[in-house]
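Explain my protein.
***
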Amino acid sequence: MTITYEYEGALYVNLTNRCNCACEFCLRQGKAQGSIYTEDSLWLEREPTREEILASIESWDLSKFRQLVFCGFGEPAYRLEDICWVIDRMKERGTKIRTRMNTNGTANLIHGRDTCPDFAGRFDEVSISLNTDTAEKYDALCHPVQTGAYEAMKSFAKKLRQYVPTVMMTVVDTIPKEEIENCRKICEEEIGAVYRVREYIED
């Protein structure tokens, strides 16, 4: 069971299979053998406990990584309370490493409350998948379980800026150039976040 793995100078934490979206471009759709980005290698037979997550992180020499990224083959916000516990234990032990969460931005929908304050003092950066420029396109591309996910995600991102030093919003470069530009305006002008266009990773 792969709980932590190294990628491009960062240590990634694989927390859950659960996700409330089924994005068309998601790596979960991959079937290729021998890659860490496939169901075969990252799909968890069970969710690790918070203690197992902490132990797996601490089994690495953290000084060699530029940051610790909480992600998951699913949506990490499902494990928000456990992530907070892990980060708090690391801080108590004096561990110093930059922390980031990669999320679809629906933590408030998942938990039925405002989770933004939970990120304060724990995360240096949160990367949120904006994905597209309208709610209709978002529903068609990401197939969210909850209604209103797109607007909830944008609202979450905007409020999160009060609690996290860097809030980034991303799209994948498979969408049209005009859409990429519209998303930039939403991110920078409406939300006030950092914008990034991610390269699509083949299976």
